[in-house]
Amino acid sequence: MAEHHGSVASRPREQWSGQLGFILSAIGSAVGLGNIWRFPGVAYENGGGAFLIPYLIALVTAGIPILFLDYAIGHRFRGSSPTAFRRLGGKAGKWLESLGWFQVWICIVIAVYYAAVVAWAASYFTFSFDLRWGDDTAGFFQNEFLQVSDPGFSAQFVPAVLIPLVLVWVLVLVVLGSGIAKGVQRANVIFLPLLVVAFLILVVRALFLDGAMDGLNALFTPDWAALGNPSVWIAAYSQIFFSLSIAFGIMITYSSYRARRANVTAPALVVAFANSSFEIIAGIGVFATLGFFAFQQGVGIDELEGLTGVGLSFITFPAIVSEMPGGALFGALFFGSLVMAGFTSLLSVLQVVSSAFQDKFGLSARQASLRVGIVLAVVSVLLFSTTTGLITLDTVDQWANNIGIVVAAIASTILVIWVFRKGPELAAHLNAVSTFKVGRIWQLLVGVLAPIVLLYMLIQRIIVLVTEGYEGYPLWYLAVAGWGTVAVILVGAITMTALRWRHDPDDFTAWPSAEALKELKK
């Protein structure tokens, strides 16, 4: 049953059909490309098995607490990111809406390039059946498939990317336009179990390859000395942070569609541990496969290149698939998994955008997905289906994630806990509706530990980007594609905040009321 609440929209707020639909959708958002192509390499480079210690500590001390914060804001203030932050700020803090729009613009930027990677994976899914990449997988990916040119902005389209990219956008907009329960939830209920089954088959197959155990030894043999290295701990916090879909509006938006009396903290724990379990399973699958590849080449794992990111997925993995018995099926499972993991994450990123436009301009889900989605689809196609698409994607991703999301997280933790002093109210709200209770330790983790770690991450990253540049790309290009991305997010946030609301977002009463929460605390 949907509910009426104030008049930010003339229609009732949509809801998930129940707890399971919400949990599957939240896991679908969290389990994305990063779980498959980022975690295994990061773990390998940062102490192997020993990395699991800082990783789990980061999960418990930063990942889950910020996840609780996002859930509490969305569930209490029942709106998209801008709506929720505006209501949290109250009469004196209406400007806090701009933090919500900052998160929305991060999602806009991520969506336009993330769709391109899903399109690549879809193409490679079809390439798997006849191993079309041949013997030179790097040459095929960069020269034949993407036709990569020098850094810049090309108007030369690549049909092999353009067509699947358009199809990805059509499919995403159809799902978004169908609403929360009939669209986003239904897609996750179908794709997430399929993804898990496909990936488990892939992992089991990988474990029986020659050299698989060498791969697992390389991944899990602990290097205890690494625990004394601060950069290993920062790597753990950043992996948890980027993997869980926290601090850029997704979980605020998703939790705003929960029923008022829904348990909030227990599902958050399920989502967090499901996400990390998938990462560890992905690590096993990827490194068992890399062990086979090293065995075939007669080299050690440490001599292999391309162990993370785009290189792992589109250059190293195709090369492995070509050498493997029954490789075509293995390739189809791998790239099919990438498509499903990417698609459910892309949906969640775009739902943040759609929800914000629905709230601000009184649009329906269908109107928002069409009006906003078509504009984003056009931008996505113009920027990422051309010969400069790969380099633009790499650069924009670097700045959107390592600068944009980290700034959003620092701002939200400091403003919510210290400036607006909402920690006790949000803790009381979580405790009023949930089985797993939080207290002062949660507020300290969110208000002190998280901002300190994140600020350190941000400063380190800015120093490296300013002094060393990125990937040897020209400075003018980094200024436009990199720092320009951050500027677009900032200007977009300020502009959207300045526009008038179709319905008054402040005509709203949080439930339980502040007085009721005080009574509950006694």
From TrEMBL:
Gene Ontology CC: membrane
Residue ranges of the TM segments: 20-39, 51-74, 95-122, 157-177, 189-212, 232-254, 266-295, 328-350, 370-393, 399-420, 441-463, 475-499
Keywords: Membrane, Transmembrane, Transmembrane helix, Transport
Localization terms from the record: Membrane
Membrane topology: Multi-pass membrane protein
Cited SUPFAM superfamilies: SNF-like
InterPro entries assigned to the protein according to its UniProt record, in alphabetical order: Na/ntran_symport (IPR000175), SNS_sf (IPR037272)
Pfam family, one: SNF
PANTHER family linked to this entry: TRANSPORTER
Descriptive protein name: NSS family neurotransmitter:Na+ symporter
